[in-house]
Amino acid sequence: MAISTFSISEAVAALKQGEVICYPTETFYAVGCNALDPLAVESVYKVKKRSDSMPLPVLIGSMEQLPLVTEVTSEIVQALANRFWPGSLSILVTASDRISPVLTGETGRVAVRVTPHPVAQQLCLEAGVPLVSTSANLSGRPAVIAASEIDPELLENVAGVVNLEPAPAGGLPSTLIEIVGPRAVSIVRNGAVSGIELRTSGLAVVPRVAGA
After folding, report:
1. Closest CA relative to residue 88, chosen from 65, 120, 64
2. CA atoms within a 13 Å half-sphere pointing along the CA-CB vector of 53
3. What's the rounded Cα separation, in Å, for the pair 59 and 50?
């Protein structure tokens, strides 16, 4: 099927109108929306056929947008941001009141990172909001690195696709961590940032407690 392609300005307008779009990130194509719009967030779950008990991660375009996602800041988040952002490190933080419980899976926490991808970054900054960023595939199917590979069934349910260079590089997804102490983190999901890199930045990487 033909892909409805968006320019940056068209995509920003769609995001502001509560639409769901597909766009490139540094790793894979993402499907997402304005993370502050609860109805749009619900639409992302439906588009992906994803259980709403599974939280959705978000992207921001700069550290200046972090207060939109969380009102709780700490020295360790600042240190991690200085070392790894923009980049493929997602940090679990306490969600702001502006973030819908639907997005967090009722956990009260949200995974956030500053994306290094210029298109995704521009979308965040021009729309002025954090973006939901989950892989552009039906739940359980492989992530994709080209707009032409996005499942037609998913494309039927989004407003359009931002098909601009650079293409996603593929490889490992972002590493997801949670903060468990003043200078300690646990890895929730292994990915592009290794435990060694986290340790060499001066952090202790401790095993995650089962069921946490």
Report:
1. 120
2. 0
3. 19
* Sign of the four-CA dihedral 41, 51, 71, 32: negative
Q: Phi first, then psi: what are they for 173, rounded to 5°?
A: -70, 175
Q: Are 73 and 133 in contact (CB under 8 A)?
A: no
pTM of the predicted protein model: 0.92
**pLDDT tens-digit series, residues 8-46:** 999 999 999 999 999 999 999 999 999 999 999 999 999
153 and 143 Cβ atoms separated by less than 8 Å: no
What residue type is assigned to position 22 of the chain?
C
DSSP bridge partners of 92: 111, 178
Give the pLDDT confidence of 110-131 residue by residue, as tens digits.
999 999 999 999 999 999 999 9
**Count of Cβ atoms closer than 10 Å to residue 153 Cβ:** 12
3-state SS class at 32 = strand
- Identify the DSSP state of 149: G
